[in-house]
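B., you asked whether I could sanity-check this one before it goes into the benchmark set. Here's the sequence:
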Amino acid sequence: MLVPVLLFIVGLVLLIKGGDWFVDGATGIAHRFHVPELLIGATVVSIGTTLPEVMVSATSAVSGHGEIAYGNAIGSIICNTALIAALTIAIRPSSVDRRSLKTPVIFFFLAAAFYMLTAYLTGQFTRLTGVILLAVFLVYMVLTVRQALKNPEAPAEQAEEEEEKQSPLWKDLLLLVVGAALIAVGADLLVDNGTLIAQALGVPESVIALTFVALGTSLPELVTAITSLAKGHGALSLGNVIGANLFNLVLVCGVSTTLSPFSIPQSKTIAGLNASLVVDLPLMLFVMAFLTLPALRRGKLTRAQGIILLCLYAAFCVFQFVV
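And here's what the prediction gave me:
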């Protein structure tokens, strides 16, 4: 049991460090070719911070562990919202830019409606489901890129300063390649040893994925939230969480189900009903609605929202292991 736990932790560390290096390398290359900062953030950084979830879910699905693929994506959304964002606003409530949140929130709920309808009506995620989710991701990225390109370029002086600070091209390429390799190895270790831990504890794989794996792959968002909070940029943390949640739904779920379709986990039930359908998916939708809809209406977040969400997350974790 000790060896799988240690390898699981090593996998988490490799995922986090690999994601960090991948983003640094990709950002450095993008800067070298004078890609606008906003465009880099909307594409390279957003996708880079979601790569751990993509690799873990894709690896799980392909290796026949659909419960981990499902639990990682849904669990990450719940963790991002009810733990990471909640912690941020419970400590330091902030105002939000309703215009910048509107598009990702709309896309999230449209994708969530499709995902949940598929789950309730068919009980499985087919390759067509994955393709549709990836199409939603593509449309969102096109709109985001178009919006980013409308913003003016950085001033010439700033561009010159950035050019002076640029790292060598070989270093950026090395960070990109090594980062991608670490993510792949880390994902493998996480999936294999997460499965062994689940078997040793006698709990379903989906429970490990919804809790430990989801929290582990959400660590980049947690680090971003803490850093943003320390610098007084609470709104930045919220934007990162909502973007990550959308990507978890359309990119992570899209890639994993396109590569290897799987059914909704059936291993945990409540009064004879599938726990995934009566707890996991409804909670995912509720915490996102509870976080975003008041923010869009009032333009601010309250401490009470954060505290309630944290209580919900604690209850969710207790439920997974006790009930």
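One thing to flag: The domain at 38-152+187-322 is CATH 1.20.1420.30 (A middle domain of Talin 1). Otherwise nothing jumped out at me.
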